[in-house]
Specification:
Distance between the termini: 57 Å
Order of helices and strands: HHEEEEEEEEE
Mean pLDDT: 81
């Protein structure tokens, strides 16, 4: 066999081997992205799916395993309590009061507010929220997930 024929044959074998290998890899790779359907994109509150906490409970309408970037959670906090001490993190956070009276803490200052009030917390700002009322505090939290 001529040297050029051997080289061409070898290259052809390597080329077809590479194509078949790359196709096999594609078949083995599975997507980790969730499949979005009308059934899982509409989320009706269900107390049975809520998570009990030390101060009430929380319900994830959309968590970081489902969304592309943002999460949506509803928190219920008993009177006189807070979910945790003031803290900070690199993600921005947005709170919206549905029911009750909240005390917002942001960088050393506090504000008390009721339903239909929002509170924005910029990245890395020290912040907290607590129940300053005599009934449960119910609020939504939108947070960017910095995967």
């Amino acid at each position: 066999m001529k040297p050029t024929t051997i080289i061409k044959t070898t290259l052809a074998v390597l080329f077809f081997h590479q194509i078949s290998f790359s196709q096999e890899v594609k078949k083995e790779t599975t997507s980790t992205e969730p499949k979005y359907t009308i059934e899982n994109c509409v989320n009706h509150f269900d107390l049975n799916k809520a998570t009990k906490t030390k101060v009430g409970y929380q319900y994830w309408f959309a968590d970081k395993n489902f969304t592309q970037e943002n999460t949506l959670k509803m928190s219920i906090v008993e009177p006189g309590k807070s979910t945790h001490a003031p803290h900070h993190h690199p993600e921005e956070e947005f709170f919206y009061i549905l029911e009750g009276t909240a005390e917002f803490f942001l960088d050393g200052k506090t504000v008390t507010a009721g339903p239909n009030t929002s509170f924005y917390c910029p990245p890395n700002a020290e912040h907290g929220i607590s129940n300053a009322g005599k009934t449960d505090l119910k609020y939504l939290v939108i947070k960017k997930d910095l995967k």
